[in-house]
Amino acid sequence: MIAAMPGAISLNTPIEDLHSFKIARLGPVLSHKLAKALAAQTHKKNPAAVTVEDLLNYFPMRYEDRSRPALIKDLHDGVEASLELTVTNAHGYAVRNPRGYGRPQLYIFEVSAIDGPMTGREVIVWWFVSGRRAYDIVKYYTAKLARGTRFITFGRWEFEARRNTYKLRLNNAADELEILLPPGTSEEPAPDEEQAEENLPDPTLAAIHVGRRVPVYRKLGEFNSKRVREIMHAVLTLLNDKTIEETFPADLRHRAKLIGRAQAVDEIHFPPPEVSMSDYEQSKSRAHERMIFEDFFWVTFAIGLKRGQRVKEVKETPLKIDKTVKDHIASVMPFKLTDAQRKVTKQIFRDMQSQAPMNRLLQGDVGSGKTIVAVIAMIAAMENDLQTALMAPTEILAEQHARSIKRLLARTPYRVELLTGSIRAAEKRRLQTALKDGEIDAVVGTQALIQEAVGFEKLGLVVIDEQHRFGVMQRAELRTRGLNPDVLVMTATPIPRSLAMTVYGDLDVSIIDELPPGRTPIETMVFGEDQRQEVKRLIAREVKAGRQVYVVYPLVEESEKMDLKDATRRYEYLRDTVFPKLPVGLLHGKMKPAEKEKVMGAFVAGEIKILVSTTVIEVGVDVPNASVMIVEHAERFGLSQLHQLRGRVGRGAEKSYCILLTSDKKTVNAEERLGIMAKTNNGFVIAEKDLELRGPGELLGTKQSGLPEFRIGNIVRDQALLEKAKQEAEFYLARAKSVVTAKMIVRIKQDPRFGLAAIG
Ligand code: ADP
Ligand code: MG
Question: Given a cut of 90, is residue 142 above it in pLDDT?
């Protein structure tokens, strides 16, 4: 197979063509695999579209200084160090064999080694090998790490008093242990890797991996850190600096003190010898600053362009909100609004009365009372003879909203209807016609509302509840269907205001920073397996006092079936064995809508006392009488998710409890997370911590929301750079007619991340 000879390599060269540049051990098959692995990383659908630039954007997760490896004699307990070692002995021994027949499935593989100059006693490096193929893998490691083999490894060394030696536990041996091959030889693929067709030796490899500062990458498909490093090094060598085009004007670089793009790309992968490694570890090197700035600059520039576009739009009818309208609203209010609710209502009214369409994000911690604010906005629109739509992320939530809005508006002339995916076809058609004819004033539903071709006679306001499941970009979808209503997006994922402004530059932001009066703080406790009796007593006591309880199970996509089974089994156990005298219910996403509604209805009515459920109740569900939230496998949840779950209780005046059950407190991260939950009830503090621990992508759900993702920037860690980049972006946006800005606009329209191609 001979590929067409491409010209010189450039940032736009497809990864699938990489094999024609004679990179060691990278033929057509592996080039394709690399393209596929990168496609999954970048959410590009088509591997053929993956380019060298995408590869270079696969940044190291950390760095190791191997220019001067440590010596055994330098080790002390708990020190992190990389060592260059020689194997004296390597073997695996079986730990347990649960089935009792066949080959064991769990081994400890242990390597004893010394350093070259023999500066101390032998050290031990070990890891677990598990799974169906454990035996083969152990055999493979034993052969690969024969006595005399040299390798380099990195990690936290611990002193083991019993054996009087230093020990290093590796969790992912393939990533943390690199064998140093004599020049001219090559590695055999591990038995769990597919047989590669190319195996060209490369005598220069050793110089890439040792005796210098090296990048460490996350495994990319079947390419381990070492392989990624080799390929990255080869590509960077092939690309001479001139093929990495500078994208910033010189004066911007000067003002922001940024190094050139080509230099930054080089240095972010391979730190030069003179720079500070601690800067690299904190993502503060000059290479990081340049790349992060670039990341932020283009995103804020794109958002600015979009915003400019919206301000120019004019809606059909600005609303009139006069005393009569306000009186009508006041007449249906079930309680006095908090000051914070009053403040955001004012902001929303101002938007609705203006010419430009509203695009507002309403943030408020769980339980802060966002729903009533949305209903107020809806009434204002309906008083202006406009239709309104409220979209919720789940059917359960849509039903709940429809129920409570109907109740609230019972004495008004407005017709409120529920329209979800599970409504029978004939009924749905009837509702759709009524909607088109303007007979329905407020429609409540799930995504189906927008996705299916639902027409309105005169749509004035769309409210989107719980944005992080949904997307700020849905407005765009409405617009493509010829509708340009006011849009209010509500979210309980509070992010610090300054960040919100920057990230959601396209949205105006309102914040409800106060809870309704009369709430008693929720007490949160982290319990282990051994404390189940206490949990049982607490449940019994609360139910006896007339209260209700949630028991929540995680549902992870990859192990959905197992998780469902877990939840179901636990439900049966609770119902039959633990609380045979109490009504226990089960709720999960795989149930038929009618069943779900029945169970939820029974819980709302207090007929079910203990509700075992998956995370379908995570957002929005409002049953004030529920006072206990028990989260099983709490360590599997993210912080913001736990906070959401906890927000299901503490909605009444009774004291409420949240119990985080964990079977595994071992991971430091999980322990830290759960500790924070126990310490604070403040959603902002939790969100900030979550941002820190998991990064904004997870928290803000950028993947679903359509917000562009930052490649390397972290909006919490790099706030100062974000601010600076935003200022610069605004500087150029303000000079729309300049050649420089025009060039930037051309550039950004070509970047598919921003979906700007259509903007004129
Ligand atoms: P969230 O912001 O999490 O969506 P909800 O809108 O569900 O919160 O409100 C939480 C609870 O607080 C509901 O039971 C609601 O009726 C109640 N509530 C909201 N605002 C007030 C208020 N101003 N005074 C008293 N109760 C309120
Ligand atoms: Mg809500």
Answer: yes
